[in-house]
């Protein structure tokens, strides 16, 4: 007795094989390999750009590599670098902070006036200033996480709020460093190392860099920050308390900006209501040049320090070459556009 084979034939139509595009099977070119390498090694690009700019300006300006000039670059980078470290946390979560400079200046005025005009002891004035920075960050974080406003709009509005508070509390007057506690001026003191004059403010920036790098790569909080920035909905489904992470990021960033205010006081030996208000662009430039993606989820703290050094080297080198400040800002703007374009190109790297 034989059995008919027709009962074993599937009734549904066979599915066509998946279409294979020609670009998926072609061997990777040199450009593809470079794109993949830059995608895998986020700090490789910033390190190369920093090296190129140092070589270029050492040729253009013979005294560029003099120890005194290197010391000056490091001192100038300390404030921008510290602000950029806080900005990096925000951008890693796919946000942006336009109130960086205003928070820093407001905190510096709070510290300066409490010490000089109200007779508050230096350590206590410093603690109040740090708390002020954290409160400003929390203010932004609450609006982003609870009211669900875009970070760009929130920080654009708070920029003006904090700047107005700064003018009100300072009465548009500069607080002199000689009237303040030595504790607030400590970040401007100089330490001579190998012919270079380093300030404690520069060393403080490096210490913050180390702490944040450890927190981002060795703690659960850091992994949640990256996960939130990479795909917020996926992170939420995986059990990450996204709003709590975002709120903590804004609070920590505000605290870092307040430390930047302390460094600023030591750098300019005063607390001025106008100093550093426009440092927003330089901080964002340093973060982007350092390889942190504006689309969140990708970037390294050490890259941000390199980015801040690139900005400092460019401004210093152009100044030594006699280029007007107007064209220095022009060059920084061009760097931002090139860095964002490069970031978009790197993100398209084929796996």
Automatic annotation (TrEMBL):
It comes from the Bacteria. It is a multi-pass membrane protein. Keywords: Cell membrane, Membrane, Transmembrane, Transmembrane helix. Its main location: membrane. InterPro entries: ABC_transp_permease. Residues 1-12 have a biased composition (Polar residues). The keyword Signal does not apply. This is Fructose transport system permease protein. It comes from Nocardiopsis aegyptia.
């Amino acid at each position: 007795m034989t059995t008919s084979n027709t009962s074993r034939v599937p009734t549904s139509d066979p599915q066509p094989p998946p279409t294979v595009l020609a670009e998926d099977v072609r061997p990777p070119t040199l450009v593809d390999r470079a794109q993949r390498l830059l995608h895998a090694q986020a700090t490789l690009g910033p390190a190369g750009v920093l090296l190129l700019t140092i070589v270029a300006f050492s040729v253009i300006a013979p005294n560029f590599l003099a120890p005194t000039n290197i010391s000056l670059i490091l001192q100038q980078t300390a404030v921008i670098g510290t602000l950029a470290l806080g900005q990096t946390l925000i951008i890693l979560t796919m946000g942006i902070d336009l109130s960086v400079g205003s928070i820093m200046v407001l905190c510096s005025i709070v510290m300066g006036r409490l010490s000089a005009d109200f007779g508050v002891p230096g350590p206590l004035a410093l603690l109040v200033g740090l708390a002020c920075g954290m409160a400003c960050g929390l203010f932004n974080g609450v609006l982003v996480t609870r009211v669900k406003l875009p970070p760009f709009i929130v920080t654009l509005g708070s920029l003006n709020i904090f700047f107005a508070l700064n003018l009100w509390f300072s009465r548009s007057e500069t607080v002199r460093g000689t009237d303040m506690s030595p504790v607030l001026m400590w970040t401007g003191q100089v330490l001579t190392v190998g012919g270079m004059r380093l300030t404690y403010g520069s060393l403080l920036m490096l210490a913050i860099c180390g702490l944040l790098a450890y927190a981002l790569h060795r703690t659960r909080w850091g992994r949640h920050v990256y996960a939130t920035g990479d795909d917020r909905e996926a992170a939420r489904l995986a059990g990450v308390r996204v709003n709590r992470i975002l709120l903590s990021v804004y609070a920590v960033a505000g605290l870092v900006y307040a430390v930047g205010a302390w460094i600023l006081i030591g750098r300019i030996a005063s607390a001025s209501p106008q100093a550093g208000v426009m440092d927003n662009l330089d901080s964002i430039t340093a973060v982007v040049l350092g390889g942190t993606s504006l689309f969140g989820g990708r970037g390294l703290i050490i890259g941000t320090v390199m980015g801040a050094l690139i900005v400092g080297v460019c401004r210093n080198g152009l100044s030594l070459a006699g280029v007007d400040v107007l064209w220095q800002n022009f060059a920084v703007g061009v760097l931002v556009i090139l860095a964002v374009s490069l970031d978009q190109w790197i993100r398209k790297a084929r796996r």
